[in-house]
What does this fold into?
Amino acid sequence: MIGGETIRINQSKGKGVTAESAEIDQETAWRMMLGIVNGQRDTRLKRFADDAWQLPEQMTEQAMHLFERYLPLCQPPGTPWVIGQLGQSLDGRIATDSGESRYINDPEGIEHLHRLRALVDAVIIGSGTAAADDPQLTVRAVPGDNPVRVVLDRERKLPNSLGLFSDDAAPTVRVVRTSGLAEPPSEQVKELVIAPSEAGACPIRALVGALQARGLSRVLVEGGGLTVSRFLEAGQLNRLHLIVAPVILGSGLPAFTMSPLDQLDDALRPDFRRFELGRDTLFDLILE
Ligand SMILES: NC(=O)c1ccc[n+]([C@@H]2O[C@H](COP(=O)([O-])OP(=O)(O)OC[C@H]3O[C@@H](n4cnc5c(N)ncnc54)[C@H](OP(=O)(O)O)[C@@H]3O)[C@@H](O)[C@H]2O)c1
It folds into this structure.
């Protein structure tokens, strides 16, 4: 890991990570982090005056790695906070031209994605992703609550037969541009009307505000590229996780589609932390 110091360990280097003295294992570490998210912070996790986390003295090495990766992402209930994520190839593609994205990344990426879902109130996807993948968007690989699923489908083009709208695995919100008369496909599916901008798109700031007003303040934007790009361009992402796989597709759907830059100096060069995720590299970009 390199990058900003948001975590400090309350111990001399190396102390407390041997098997004999280990107290907190990986599973306990994860449950402690879920505690923060659920508003029940474990007293063993403290914060310094500058907001950096102070870790417990005794834990396994695996627990320490988990804390390093996820503790800076744990927000107490009610915190307005948005994280985007994309898994991409070395040449910046998130899917083939035919829309196949399973799987560009190593299996470790799945567990990571499920951990991100467990840390938020809502997970957003664009209609392109819903149509191509019909993802469940639930937390299955690790303990944690399912987030509310939010699908951007302004013209109600997506079929009600999608699992997202019919499996009842978690509440689902369909974001549309006008109210409609049609019965929702299931009691678990609600519509959220966001008036379009002049360009016809859903204004991202208004969407984030409307979700916050419904108690969905911590949000994961899970894809695809167009949707994440719109959040990034609107300045609405606090963090962006890019998982880069050592693979070259040579063509396919791009991770980012944004307004052209006039000069290189205008490029985004955020602070970041970097982790190994199987054979892939996770960039934790800090945009706030
Ligand atoms: N590798 C990964 O991490 C990853 C993650 C997710 C998805 N994927 C892949 O990515 C592909 C889909 O990505 P994509 O970039 O083509 O599409 P996408 O981002 O999933 O969806 C784009 C669509 O969402 C709607 N949308 C998004 N932002 C909007 C806004 N502000 N206002 C109104 N509508 C908005 C629009 O639909 P309408 O035009 O219909 O209104 C837009 O065309 C799939 O092949 C999927 O498998 C990969």
Remarks:
- The longest helix spans residues 26-37.
- Residues 11-20 have pLDDT under 50 and may be disordered.
- The pocket of NAP is lined by residues 86-87, 94-95, 99, 101, 104, 125-129, 132-133, 152, 154-155, 157, 201-202, 204, 222-227, 230, 253 (CB under 6 Å).
- DSSP finds seven helices and 14 strands in the chain.
